Amino acid sequence: MKQACKICGNKTRIKYRQLYDDRHGYPGRFDLRECVSCGFMQTAPQLTTREIAKIYSKHYPRAKISPEQVLAAAKNIPSKETIEKKGLGGTCHLDTKPGERVLDIGSGAGYSLAEIKALGGVAYGVDPDKNAERIARKLGFKFHLGFLHNSHFPKKHFDLITASQVLEHTPDPVRLLIACKSYLKPGGRIRMSFPNTGALYRSLWGKAWLHWHVPYHLNHFNKTSVEIMAKKAGLKIRSIKTVTPNLWTVLQIRSWVSQVRMGERNTMWDTGRVDEKKIEAKKDWLKSLSLRFLPMLEDKLFFNRILDWFGRGESFVVEFRLC
Ligand SMILES: [Zn+2]
């Protein structure tokens, strides 16, 4: 199936063929198509919004999270030093200032909403997952089940609109930005983070890069496509940088050593545990060894800070403002 580039409308060609969901076991194979003009990449075929809402409820492991767990986590908001050291700057809502009305798009299990509240903000969430609604309602947050463009929230209402690792999941990213614009107060800011295909690790891992994450990730941005998207939405980019969560580097290696077949769930993403027996059964001492030492890396990956210095990190953090 041919697709025109969602961002600039030019032709796309196949970059990688036949990737599959190696986390939650969604069946099917997907190609990645690259725009010949702006370099934006998109998953093909693209799932519809209805399919997406369904697979998030089924394949994303949120059903078991309790409201108590969410509240407990909000007591441990990372300090500025930890954010810096571990590369957590892509957690956009941590930029909340006391008294601000903050809308988090793709608020998921509600950890972000609880943290916005803990930081002194008034939290609003939107997410298509029914599990997200269940938790948000129990905790008393203002919440819209579905997508931003058909939400009941008042227009020109928010000081800060955040979307951390969301834009890559949305069928129409330009439309999402336009919707954000209409809910933003004059002088407000929109902060978004999403994977960067210009990352050095992407070049190194190629087809095995963690953030292709098909079919959940529909969009794969480079810097040029971000600039075109902002222009089309009528927003200006106030700042653009990259961050690389050390955890992502650890997960990349763990995911690679614990590869599963198509249609199979990888226990690592559900339980946080890699099926070591399987790896040991293959007598793969190198993989076993790497698993044992990986957790130690989370505080120590200084190399990631160097990548971010050069803008070659894993995730963009972009702040948009009204023109
Ligand atoms: Zn394009």
Automatic annotation (TrEMBL):
It comes from the Bacteria. The keyword Methyltransferase applies. It comes from Candidatus Nomurabacteria bacterium GW2011_GWB1_47_6. One of its GO terms (molecular function) is methyltransferase activity. This is Methyltransferase family protein. It holds the Pfam family Methyltransf_23. Keywords: Methyltransferase, Transferase. GO terms for biological process: methylation. The keyword Cell membrane does not apply. InterPro entries: SAM-dependent_MTases_sf (IPR029063). Coiled coil: none annotated.
